[in-house]
Amino acid sequence: MSAFPFVDPLYHEPIGRYAHSPEFERVLTDVLPESWSVERSGVWMAARPPWRRYPDQGFKLHVSAVPDDAEEILRRVAMICGETATEFKCAADPRLLSHINSKRASRGSSGKFMTLYPESDHAFEGLAARLAEATAEFDGPYILSDRRVPGSRCVFYRYGGFSRRSRMRPDGTREYLIRGVDGSDLPDRRQPFFALPEGIADPFPPEDAASGSDLRIGDRFEIREALAFSNTGGVYLATDLATGADAVLKEARPHTSSWSMQDGYLDAVGMLEHEHAVLTDLAGTGVTVQPLGMHRAWEHTFLAQSFAPGEPLRSFRGRPEIILTTHMDDPERVGQFCGVFHTVARGLLAAVRAVHEAGYVIGDLSPNNIMVDADTLGVTLIDVESAHRPDDRVATLARGWYTPGFRPLDEAGRRAVTPADDLYAAGMALYSLVMPVQHFFRLHPEAGPRFIDRFVAAGLPEEVRDVIAALARGDAEAAEALLDAWTPTLSVPSYA
What we know:
This protein is α+β, with helices and mostly antiparallel strands. The chain has three domains: about 170 residues, Phosphothreonine lyase fold, CATH 3.30.2430; about 90 residues, Phosphorylase Kinase, domain 1 (2-Layer Sandwich), CATH 3.30.200.20; about 180 residues, Transferase(Phosphotransferase), domain 1, CATH 1.10.510.10. Helices cover about 30% and strands about 20% of the residues. It has twelve helices and 21 strands. Strands 1-2-4-5-3-7-6 form a seven-stranded antiparallel sheet. Strands 11-12-13-14-18-17 form a six-stranded antiparallel sheet, covered by helices on one side. The chain has a three-stranded antiparallel sheet with strand order 8-9-10, with no helix packed on it. A hairpin with a 6-residue loop joins strand 6 and strand 7. Helix 2 runs antiparallel to helix 4, helix 7 packs antiparallel against helix 9 and helix 9 packs antiparallel against helix 11. The protein starts with about 20 loop residues before the first helix and ends in an 11-residue tail after the last helix.
């Protein structure tokens, strides 16, 4: 397993080389009997009695936690485990707990701060009741692979393997196994939904509420398909029943991607509410999607917004008419590229400046959140949750909130984000139309100018390089002047 950038900011390193902080280990040492062993294992801190007591498989318990409550929850649960001789593991330190609950974490394992291995199904039920009582006042991220223990908001259970029985898949990866009631081997799947193997009965009655499976949100939006999933929630294409128009719904799961702030706690729901406020403030600029309201379904929060036509710049730049690397000797292809570049650059620069004039910096601008309309080459900004005013709560988070390759190399994550940082990101986004290798520039800063100089030497107009360079140094006026003075020789290709 790799953890980038836990160990090194530039290279992938084994997670075992990450030196964990002592907070959680100290709790375990304080409350567990002296005969127990406590040792690091990957992202986990494993705590074991002097003898092994658990079976190969059965109902296991998971405990989730938000950062501010983690130490107290760990203390209470570890004490119960010590009294019952129940082996368990927990995230090795608060940083790793935040990683487990982060946006990019696996949805199948998300939220699992602690895992407990009861010695029997009978012991499981008694232990579940004790944990629910001990943690009754706490809440935590919902564990998608599990079901809540009745009476608790942070204790969950699922059926699975305790020992790590596995077999090799054809692709060389390992598949963990459990034994079915008929004795056959079955995959022990960590899926983002609760499921029991055939023949295994649920020890607790199912929850009354469904886990957000309804397709109607706020009695106005009907979900048609999922566009993307992350640990914090999905992104869905929907129909606005009030207008018949397409809409996009962004989902936030409470207590995921959580941060402890000086003025309180911030999670994915809070960030979605922040994004709604930003979109509301920017609605008059015409450069972002339009907010259509906040809605709640089951325990999840949804931001409804207008549908932005086109596709993200990261995929738009892959159109055959734009790719230059093998066509620098074709003046017509170079001309087509320049027509596209000129129009997109104008639209992107205008969008960034409009946001700045409204008092915001974008923070995280990259080809992922720049939409390009294939018919008009118009630019729309999406996913503006990182946008903020200097006094916003998220300003501190935004310092380290950026896409690698799209923040000035010498300042990444070290200071408050400025408009110049957004202009640099815009320049690198335009550079990615020429050659999408910006994430490597931190390893070799001189490569950026060298690569584009080679393209210019091969026939790319100097204006392309100069516009990018002006934006990279934060000079919007110079970039605009260059675009005003430059008329590409060939027209923009039609994408209709």
